[in-house]
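explain this.
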Amino acid sequence: MKFIGAGSRPDRPQVDHDIVFTIPNLLTVVRFMGVPLFIWLVLAQKEYGAGVVVLAVMACTDWVDGYVARRFDQASRLGRVLDPIADRLALLAVAVTLVIAGVVHWLYLAALVIPDAVLLALTLSLFRGHPDLPVSAVGKVRTGLLLLGTPMLVLSRLDTGFSHALFIAAWIVLGLGLVGHWIAAYNYVWAMLRKGRAQTTPDGGTS
């Protein structure tokens, strides 16, 4: 089974339906709910092990909701908007939490925030709303790497015999994820500019 685009059916193109109550959207809501739970576990309870479990569940829902949407024709316009928002919220909130907890340096948070801030500024200036761009393969890999590296890093805080090795492995994965984050942002910037120019030309349909 392929990891990226799992569940897609070549004989049936994906259609985004005007529905709200779907299993993928429910899983996205679960991912939203995992954010405050992770913050409470790490900052208030210092329960890093339980925090890793929450992160693992959040990462799993990110893959499962996409699989279910493609496999069982439950893709929706709402899900197309909510899913990347849930990913961004999770990654940024977890990064802020880990900075406060002293697990990562604030530069890691800056490396996540700066590209997203640029994309948000472009979104507001060019589209006044969601740009409705397809998620790129680089973006999907980036999200997977960051969602994998973060629990590895939290797990390295536990007193185990392989904490140091896990710490190094976590930063390798996170480093690759950050590189992908910037590459994906670069690609999205150009995609937004192209779409924005198309909408402002006479043949683009709108001004």
